[in-house]
Amino acid sequence: MHISILTTGGTIDKIYFDALSEFQIGDPQIAEVIKHIHAAFTHEVRVVLRKDSLEFDDADRKIIRTAVAGASSDKVLVTHGTDTMCETGRALAGVGGKTIVLTGALTPARFRETDAVFNIGFALACVQTLPPGIYIAMNGRVFDPERTRKNRRRNIFEPVDAFESNP
């Protein structure tokens, strides 16, 4: 099995410099994570963007969409910042014939205590087992980007109807 991995930046790849949380987007960390898990699949990692997802605009989402549509595999994993992951997932609607999974991290992969390794492993399992479609793999759950948002207060992803009925 071959998986195309596209990186766009976000917290998962951030490097912090000081107590004021100054940062820049560093090299994609997913390659390092995969190197240490003795993966039984082939993969390629392609850098699409190196931005905080709060800075994404429609042009950036078009770049991501083009990269996903042109990926060499029908299994595509996209690492992405968590703040606008749902918006990008919705922008991928209509890219057919592929299993597309977006994932990220709430803390940088370089940190000792991070959710990045878990989220990457979970997303890799999802991209291999789910049918074609667009998914978000975060917090140990699979979400439909059309009906999901990040609950910033609780720092988790949840279905929109759950968020609206439990403000």
Structure description:
With 167 residues, this protein is of the alpha/beta class. It has a single domain, classed as L-asparaginase, N-terminal domain (Rossmann fold). It has five helices and ten strands. The strands form three sheets. Strands 4-1-5-6-7-8 form a six-stranded mixed beta sheet, sandwiched between helices. A hairpin with a 4-residue loop joins strand 9 and strand 10. The radius of gyration is 15 Å and the shape is globular. The model is unreliable at 163-167 (pLDDT under 50).
Describe the structure in brief.
The protein has 167 residues and is of the alpha/beta class. Helices cover 27% and strands 31% of the residues. The strands form three sheets. The protein has a six-stranded mixed β-sheet, sandwiched between helices. A two-stranded antiparallel ribbon has the order 2-3. A two-stranded antiparallel sheet has the order 9-10.
